[in-house]
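We both want to read discrete structure tokens more fluently, so let's practise on a single case. Once you have written the record down, we can walk along the chain together.
***
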Amino acid sequence: MKNKFGKLVTATSFLALSAGFANAGTLDDISKSGELRACFDAGYMPFEMKAKNGKFIGFDIDLGKLMAKKMGVKYVPVNTAWDGIIPALLTGKCDIIMAGMTVNAKRNMRVNFADPYIVVGQSILLNPKHKDKVLSYKDLNSPEYTIAAKLGTSGEQAIKRMLSKASYNAFETQTDAALEVVNGKADAMIYDMPYISIYAAQSEGKTTAILEPFTYEPLGWAVKQGDPDILNFLNNFLRQTKGDGDYQRIYDKWFKSDTWLSQVQ
């Protein structure tokens, strides 16, 4: 009886210890390191950009800094090429992706997303010579048009799904894709509405834009799968931040003002 009881206690202790290891996740790692490491790909206005002084600024950056402050840890920016950003998360190079990432089924098979923190969609940056001819994305669905987009983005997916008759050129950065339109090498660029809006305003007549989004795209923070605690934290953080006005303050700074442009131009 004594031996059986001893074995039972040992087994119970082992299960409890195993459960403790299983429950250790991203929040525990952040707490122990004293850092919130956030992956992004700088250059996506106004979400994440590199300022002239070498620092990273933007909507996602400010939200990341606020999150780290609420956690009581240091915010650490991890600038990462877009095509390697999910592998960077999965291999532990960062704790979270805060990069204006569109929630979709393919990505959701590799990572978990918190509730969307903003909703955007795909818009059109257009060469001015087509201003009166192209009035919607449907008009671009023809072999006579060449469309540019950034490799691996939802803009690329939208082109392949909805504009399959047009010629498509992929680029490593959104800036390179936009320059194709400016230089007349592409008729249009498909990308997220905030970036298209800002770029068209800056281009001084070298481009025009059709800003009404033709897709529905929620953006979400991505974390490793199998960690419900970090998802619970992120959803509650977002709810609280929207409720107390901090979210709106940061949103207005980046989306309702252009004073920040002087920092990156």
Observations:
- The longest strand covers residues 35-40.
- The longest helix spans residues 2-23.
